[in-house]
Amino acid sequence: MGSLPPSLDLPSPPLGKPPHLQLLSETTLLNLFKSQQNHLNYFFQNLDFSQALSFTQTLLNSRGTIFFSGVGKSGFVASKISQTLVSLDIRSSFLCPLDALHGDIGALSSADVLVLFSKSGSTEELLRLLPCARAKGVYLISVTSVSNNALANACDMNVHLPLERELCPFDLAPVTSTAIQMVFGDTVAIALMGARNLTKEQYAANHPAGRIGKSLIFKVKDVMKKKDELPICKEGDLIMEQLVELSSKGCGCLLVIDDEYHLLGTFTDGDLRRTLIKASGEAIFKLRVGDMCNR
């Protein structure tokens, strides 16, 4: 390849660091992880488990859909927890508070539960949503970290997630508060999974793709090659005439069969390489599969 034209020259990677940045030491990073661990420990040590139990029991008893809502980072957490419940065969959905006020609130019914995640409990979008959701007869639950907030006071139930402080040096960036929201929501999800006696097979039915589905759903007959897909040949066939069959079927081997389709052996890519090493000159064109196959 030639050199790139001048207009496509890639910039050289910057050397050194901008003058306003400081080198990050291993000790500094380790201390941050330890601080976050301490903040999480504060949450575990101060969580009111009676609230957690009431919350979990309410979701378990729900006859309708469990909706989750939130704004910003709390919204992402709410959406993730909803997706976790769906994967556990629990009817759930994320309700965007802005879209709800423009028509999506029509999805709510009196049989549903609406869980509102907010660190402060003063999120305007959620507070505007509350009276509209209550008019639909929805059971309202707030999950907040600030005591005596407007959202908690307006809901049927509140779960307080104890927050010592954010890991952010300014105590502003929501990194610890979202961590405890996620831990709380996912732990409740697993509690619901156990209470509903979800089996491994039921769980796998919702995960048909990837390793989970292949290991728990698919049987050999679902993925095996059949009939014309099989790379077959006879032991009397010339090796050089079977190269297309060997490569085109994508199996890495030939199945050597007799006239009654009984398996006599295999001839693999490795056997082909070894054959090419051993044979010389025109001899390779005379070798038959039966001469080199694994019986």
Write out key terms for the chains shown.
CBS-domain; CBS_dom; repeat; 13 helices; alpha/beta; 2 domains; 8 strands; five-stranded parallel β-sheet; SIS domain-containing protein; 43% helix; 295 residues; CBS domain
Shape: elongated
Mean pLDDT over the full residue set: 89
Which CATH top level class of the largest domain fits? Alpha Beta
Q: Rg from C-alpha positions? A: 31 Å
SSE-based structural type: alpha/beta
Share of residues in strands: 5-15%
Termini separation comes to 48 Å
CATH topology descriptor of the largest domain:
Rossmann fold
Q: What share of the residues lie within helices? A: 40-55%
Main sheet record: 5 strands, parallel
Q: In terms of per-residue confidence, which ranges show pLDDT below 50 for 5 or more consecutive residues?
A: none
Organism: Gossypium raimondii
Keywords: CBS domain, Repeat
Family: Belongs to the SIS family. GutQ/KpsF subfamily.
GO molecular function: carbohydrate derivative binding; isomerase activity
How does the SSE layout of this entry go?
Layout lengths: L25 H21 L2 H13 L4 E5 L2 H15 L4 E3 L2 H4 L12 E5 L6 H12 L3 E6 L5 H5 L2 E4 L15 H20 L4 H6 L4 H7 L3 H4 L8 E3 L8 H6 L4 E5 L5 E6 H10 L10 H4 L3
Parallel strand pairs: 1-2, 1-3, 3-4, 4-5, 6-7
Antiparallel strand pairs: 7-8
Helix pairs in contact: 2-7, 3-7
